[in-house]
Amino acid sequence: MSDLLQVTKLVKHYDGRRGLVGRLTGNPGSIVQAVNGVDFSIRRGETLGLIGESGCGKSTLGRSVLRLHNLTSGKVEFDGKNITTMSDGELKPWRRHMQIVFQDPYASLNPRMTVGEIVSKPLRVHQMANGAEQRARVAAVLDRVGLNANHVNRYPHQFSGGQRQRIGIARSLILNPKFIVCDEPVSALDVSIQAQIIELLEELKQDLDLTYLFISHDISVIGYVSDRIAVMYLGKIVEIGVTDNILNAPRHPYTQALLSAVPRVGASGNSKHRIRLTGDLPSPVNPPQGCKFHTRCPLATEICRHKEPELQPGTSSSTSVACHHAASG
Which of 257, 241, 255 is nearest to 319 (CA)? Predict the structure, then answer.
């Protein structure tokens, strides 16, 4: 199966001096190293799960591959075409095939627009349908995501959180995309609603032959939806491989710590196996030298403090890991 998305040495840095309204607030030369040289690919019809702590660069990476952010350096190829340096005009036809479902269904929908206006806007922007055809396509996609097509004249505040996320999913589907970035699509929802949205996304993937980059901080969700999993730490992918290998035989100590933290019913007797990381995620403004994880790693030695490890494949598995002391695999 061929690759739909190929990412090579992607780097995204921000000017750390600028605050939320663009004013200079930090020290001169302050750079936020959000994503620092990431390589991965996603095959057609595959779900690649991306997991890591808050602040590790997951969402920035997801938006960068869609060119919602301009890259600092690196390359993104979509469907065999290098989209890295395309202008907005050149990129517009490709955006039809690349969509995103945002984390917060409350913030991602314009409260002044009706559901019909929200879902149909991509059709208007890309001049793909109008009039009766546009209304028919909106009604069809709303029905497909489990909403009542008669709700087109209602506003977002009249719906529950789960229904709002369904509206966001409908908007992402209206152009019949090939690839969708799911950026923490269920983390803002109640647990009971999370399961419904996950099942909907799985059904859509199968029925519409979609390809997903699924971002989450929840290893249980990632393990359920993903064909492969990439583990991210402080702007770098530290382990990537087939889901079963990552979940059952993790090689990187950070992945092992993430998995050990998953609560298990009746597992109190296994509490001694919990790997407790000390300290917080370091600042992306001033990341550690060498291995970015060495300040919290129980296996760290002198080489970890001075030499950054590269992703290396295992000898007997399809898992790649960036660690000087990785478990054998």
Answer: 241
Quickly list H helices, 126-178.
131-144, 161-173
Helices 191-208, 161-173: inter-axial angle, 10-degree rounding? 20
**CB–CB of 58/100 below 8 Å?**
no
Model pLDDT for residues 161-178, shown as the tens digit of each residue = 999 999 999 999 999 999
Which residues are bridge partners to 43 per DSSP? 3
Distances 22 to 25, 60, 69, 220, 266 between C-alpha atoms, Å: 9, 18, 16, 37, 50
Identify the three-state secondary structure at position 34: strand
- 72: confidence class by pLDDT, cuts 50, 70, 90: very high
Give the separation between CA 122 and CA 227, rounded to whole angstroms.
Answer: 29
CATH of domain 3-48+58-88+226-265+273-321: 3.40.50.300
Contacts of 28 (CB under 8 A, 6+ apart): 17
d(C-alpha 188, C-alpha 206), whole Å:
24
> Which tokens belong to 284?
């992306």
Distance, CA of 87 to CA of 90 (rounded, Å): 5
Count of positions (residues) in the chain: 329
Average pLDDT over residues 313-319: 75
Q: Specify whether the CB–CB gap between 181 and 215 falls below 8 A.
A: yes
269 band by pLDDT with thresholds 50, 70 and 90: very low
Q: What is the pLDDT of residue 315?
A: 67
Handedness of CA 261, 264, 268, 272 (dihedral sign): negative
For 245, list phi and psi in degrees, rounded to 5.
Answer: -65, -45
